Amino acid sequence: MARGLYRVYLYVVTIALAVFVTVSVSSLLGVLLRLTPLRGSYASAPTSADITQSSVLALVTLIIVAGLGGLHYWLIRRDTASDPEPGASSVRSFTLNLALGIATLVAVFAGASALAQFNLAFTGSLAESLAVALAALGLTLALGWERR
Hints:
This protein is an all-alpha fold. Helices cover about 80% and strands about 0% of the residues. The chain has helices at about 1-35, 50-80, 90-120, 125-145. The longest helix is centred in the middle third of the chain and has 35 residues, at about 50-80.
């Protein structure tokens, strides 16, 4: 029982950190994509303060996640090395499949939203939905790689 709770803790914290870094990278991508024509005809370009704030947020997030996420990932690897069948863990399968499913849905719906807005004559900004789609796609690929 205690080992199962320990695994739940490890996977939930690691996935929460991955979501945290995905959101901050999505914010940075949204600001950077607003520098391109994807921002639409009515949105203004981001200021240098917007770019600086998003860059600092992404950098600080990456530093925090590298430390805490690296520690938790190492603990996960240590736990799976001591398990005779690490891939058969129900906690691992459930948490990774749930997170992978949610990240895939977010990536698909954000990408579909960006594509639906792409051909409209008076479109708003495509930058935010495209940034969310790209960041969620990155999370989906990382979770899929870890699942294998």
